[in-house]
Amino acid sequence: MKLAYVLGTFPAVSETFILREILELRRRGLEIALFALRRPDGGPAVAAAGDLPALTCYRAPILNAAVMAALAHALVRHPVRFIRVLGRTLALAPHAPLEMLKRLRNVPAAAFFARRASRLGVEHVHAHFAFRPADVAWMMAELMGVGFSFSAHAGDLYVQSPALLARKVRAARFVAVCTRYGLQEMSRRLGGPPPANVHVVYHGVSPAAFGASRGLQPAPAGAEPVILAVGRLQAKKGFATLIDACRLLRKRGVPFRCVIAGEGPERGKLEAAIARHGLREAVGLPGAQTQEQVAALLGTARVFALPCTIAPDGDRDSLPNVLLEALAAGVPVVTTPVAGIPEAIEDGRTGLLTPPDDAAGLAARIENLLNNEPLCRTLVGFGKAVVAERFDITRNVTPLAELFERARETA
Questions:
Q1: What is the pLDDT of residue 177?
Q2: CA 6, CA 2: separation in Å to the nearest integer?
Q3: Tens of pLDDT, residues 365-386
Q4: What number of other Cβ atoms are within 10 A of residue 90's Cβ?
């Protein structure tokens, strides 16, 4: 089967789960043509993707000759489809001229991608994230006369207009959400029972890639135990709460070193908090990391902390994949019961849960893990088991492959 995957930025260091999914589907024999709206800036994400960036078709400028040719081709060869795409695009934001212009800008990209995909014999178009990638995938599929589907993950599900989300869900052959919580949230936002074409498809990790952790071994002589956090530096990750918890741990005389690996818009705010609390020697922000670097960091960690919260605009994580990576690596986890996190982290069994935005509670949980090796070993044992049973990429990509096959059979 030949698929087109429409992505935002590809590859993206914060979306390695998409890369794992593509590689596993390709390993199973599916041919996947990649289309991306933005090129990456380079760095860790590109290094991890191998030859895929070179095989990706990236959005071209609107005045590019190939784009103009694709628009003319769509208008001449498929005028009804083209007019339908334009009409639907205009109808999506009738009272918001700026938003309408942004959506109209997607039409040339969709025409350009559609012509390339048609030449490659693509039979179905799939998008990751229900925002712009799904818009473009829907247009592409319409212009090509094939079906489309999309995966919804986090902000694209929780922040997007319910009316617009509902239109995309109705048009899609299927929609994949990555947690049961996401399915419930979609039902709530659409105002009814779960749509029949929406399915829960958990992300997956490769346990072997994270299986060499030394997290439960004593720190080298004279070294402080490492508290590790990994994720994009943005409000919903709760890193400001983690820094405040580090302040409390230092005040209590608890030895530790905290590493918050990632990049994002909150770097300046977090750096200011670290300086304000006098934690420059205790808390580091090393920036974005490759998957290999994350695995190495997990190998040094005594505790993995990710105090997720709900951002002011309603954005939140569904089930951060780095939590699964920490479980696979055998590092005890402390996090919060936000969104779909409890579907992997059961308090006292596979990790510890603390309320979001509660620095004192987070500090207490971290201190407990630093000082309670029997508890850590219990959490690690059950954590590795739940990854092997429910979150192995080789197993979890199966229902997605079946959905693609079913979409082709019902075309």
A1: 97
A2: 13
A3: 999 999 999 999 999 999 999 9
A4: 12
In a shared domain, residues 176 and 317: no
CATH of the domain at 132: 3.40.50.2000
Residues 385 and 402 in one domain: no
Amino acid at 364: A
Output the CA torsion 178→324→13→8 (10° steps): 0
Q: At what angle do helices 79-92 and 97-104 cross, to 10 degrees?
A: 150
Whether residues 179 and 60 fall in one domain: yes
Q: What is the mean pLDDT of residues 189-203?
A: 93
Confidence label for 221 from pLDDT (cuts 50, 70 and 90)? low
- Using DSSP's 3-state secondary structure scheme, residue 397 falls into helix
Residue 194 CA: distances (Å) to CA of 110, 131, 179, 343, 371:
29, 20, 13, 18, 44
pLDDT surpasses 80 at 92:
no
Among 373, 372, 389, 374, which Cα is nearest to 327's? Answer: 389
CA-based angle 286:291:292, to the nearest 5? Answer: 90
Question: What is the pTM assigned to this prediction?
Answer: 0.93
Q: Which residue has the tokens 């994270």?
A: 210
Q: Domain limits at 80?
A: 2-204+393-409
Are 306 and 386 part of one and the same domain?
Answer: yes
Give the C-alpha separation, 372 to 22, whole Å.
Answer: 40
β-bridge partners, 35? 6, 57
What is the average pLDDT value for the chain, to the nearest integer?
Answer: 92
Distance of CA 361 to the CA centre of its chain: 27
